[in-house]
Amino acid sequence: MSAAETAKSVLRRLTAASATERILISFAALVLAVVVGAVIILVSGRVTTCQTAATTLFGTGFCYDPVEVYLVLFNGALGEPFLVNSPGILKPLNPDWNPLNFGFALTLKETTLLIFTGLSVAVSFRAGLFNIGTQGQLVLGGLATALFSFFVAPLLPSGLVGGLILIPLAVIVGALVGGLYGAIPGALKAYADANEVITTIMLNFIAAQIAFVLVSEFFGNPDSQVVETTPLPDWATLLPVAFPQGGDFSLLALAFGLALVVAVWFLLEQTSFGYDLRTSGEQPEAAEYGGVDAKHTTVTSMFLSGALGGMGGAIWVLMVMGKWQAGVPSLGFDGITVSILAGNNPFGVVPAALLFGTLKSGSLAVQFGTGVPKQLVGVLRGLIILFVAMPEFFRMLGSAIDLEPDRETVATDGGRLGGDDE
Amino acid sequence: MSTAVHLDEITKRFPGVVANDDVDLTVERGTVHALLGENGAGKTTLMNILYGLYEPTEGTVHVDGKPRDFDSPADAIDAGIGMIHQHFMLVDPMTVAENIVLGNEPRKWFGTTVDRERARQEVIDLSNRYGFDVNPDDAIEDVSVGVQQRVEILKALYRGADILILDEPTAVLTPQEVEELFRVFEELTAQGKTIIFISHKLGEAMHAADDITVLRNGKNVGTVKADETSNEELAELMVGREVLLEPKAEPQEPGDEVLSVQRLSATDNRGVPAVSDVSFDIREGEVFGIAGVDGNGQSQLVEAITGLRTPTEGSISYKGRDITDASRRSRIDDGMAYVPEDRHERGLVMDFDLVQNGILGSQHSPPFAAAGRIHWSDAREHTERIIDEYDVRPPHADADAESFSGGNQQKFIVGREFERDPDFVVATHPTRGVDIGAMEFIHERLLDLRAEGKAILLISSKLDEVQGLSDRLGVMHDGELMDIVDPRNTTEEEIGLLMAGERPDADATDAEPPVGDAK
Questions:
Q1: What CATH topology corresponds to B257-335+422-502?
Q2: pTM for the whole thing?
Q3: For residue B483, what is the enclosing H or E element?
Q4: pLDDT exceeds cutoff 60 at B511
């Protein structure tokens, strides 16, 4: 078998993998990434100099202990439910551990935000549209939420009642603006045949600049040196009620995100529109044959995707910042990886976002709790994401290209069946 | 007479499938041997083994009495075997001569340069020797499909082939070109060449072959002499039971007009005119057939009617309303069913299971959807009914469309469209790739729909199919509707001439000099 054939057969196998197999593959990839990461930690621990070796293997001292690093990574993401003793020995349970702790809140904060952006990307990918513009949709959606809340808040009674009215409205405004901004590349694709990958990337820059100019020139906080809007009153934001140590995480937002997961699943799998969307994504010619209005579906799918991104922005403003601030984190781009990791399945987005959240908050713990530099922590994170995402990425690739070994495509007719003499 | 090829107990297994099961095949030198069988019977696999593309799992290939073990087609070519595939492997912009010598060019100047003059001369000599009518200087893109096929044959001969394998050689030819091909067979065998051709058409095997081997489910179910057998016997061998071969539509009085196409023109995807000025109408309880070689505008015509292509000129009215610009969806909702030409691209979503595919086109309509929500239980019931009635195998509603064989995919699409309770059915190659048994069933269902008063547009490149089923038959050539004939009173030769673009001069028929005098 030639190399190309081997590659094809591997792709074919990946494409045909069942859900259980895919979960197993992801888990195996995670383990493998940890193993490879451990080697990297050891090697970099050998080339650095330190006072005391963190661990000693085969009589050689290493500055960093991989076991400790990974324990701190995952342990820290949960707020240290286990006590870690150097050199990397796990004690049963930390008696002082409280699930409602800061580290765990940090994990869940990232998870929540990535659920929104992951869903946004998943919806567009399922429709066959490569929306790279979730970031821009998030930036503008967030800004719209911040400005709307800022201008409407004075008109409402402060406190719980005001929050109950204002927050849902603010999220809707964010969704609308994100959606409309997503619909632009959708319309460009549908009516002008402009490649959405290019347009969404360009629109990301435009969104960032528009937001920057709007805030710095017109709607900025006059009392601040930074480009940001005036902070919203607490009652107009989502507070970390259940987490006394803070951490900018609101259970309400997570619940809303999980409800959206179910809603997106329902839309995709149980409705006629979802059928149209998925058919367009799988096979545009078949969708056209089945009476799907391709232009309409493209614009609507992009609107939906943008709306989810916009809601991500709204939650970022309401839950994390309490205002809009320039330099929005790359949640939208991470959403692409989350969605690929999830196989573009709305339910898959939750564990994928959780993995991301864990790594993000865990790496903070590693940075502070061990001597490992933050660049190395970044490498470890990247490794895990790369390893776990690649099988899914190749699955997408595999279903995008024709892998059939010897599909008989040729019509075998054209002559006569019965007697044809005389 | 010596044996040219002997396949000894060949078995070929692919993961999960036995493509060839203990097949013996003996081909005598200087004969034409037809390998007959339904799609998926293992004909092409067997020939790919002989040609060195596959290695047999078990068994031996003997060529000229010697056991051979081919690692690649290059070995088979060295052993004097040439294969002409269904898809021609020719370079379009290059000339006939260049294509024939490609890869084995005569060289000059110590092998640094192709000796074009000698190449040309060798090609001329070769085609004269076998009486081929080809011009070595024509570009491939300018010659007809029939000529391209002859170029492929010459290419194999140029490489020294004594044994020629042709995979479904008649699939792309007009009846006249088929006759021409069979004459070439005679010429080649007269000069000692051996020909094996793959077919699933009884008629042409009977007509052109000396011996016929029938494969069924990967097994050799019998080798017979063509002059000692009958169509009925062969059909029974192929299917394993008795088959009604010729569809016959009993005359029936048609009702009101359902579809009317007026002076319709359309272009293909590249913007090249593909349909020009076509007009016809179809009435209730009538089958209107369109015959023609593939690629003469039938696809574009059908797409314009079904709403997948915007015509450049002309109009289409359906049930008395102008639908020239109506959306595809509105046409579906208005009772238009369509068995598309391309089942992989259009007819099925390959990564969807059959339940999801069962509602393609009905995803917004009751009973499968209401208020924007799909009723999957109804969809499943519907799909299972189609699978059952149209004998889709294996009967797995949850399996992806991709996992089914071409014939079963086709049966499923036909079932879905016929069971839509349509008023008008557009059936493009409805029996393409299905076996004779299923073909018989689809023909029956089509005639049932006609009896129920539905209007039917039937497009097929199988002449006997359109001729047997249609009440009126239009023949297309180069985008034009050459003529509309009564299929019951027109011979196949007359239709074949129309397909080839020759418009018979009605008045001249009597005045024409006897054919014998022409030479």
A1: Rossmann fold (3.40.50)
A2: 0.74
A3: strand B480-485
A4: no
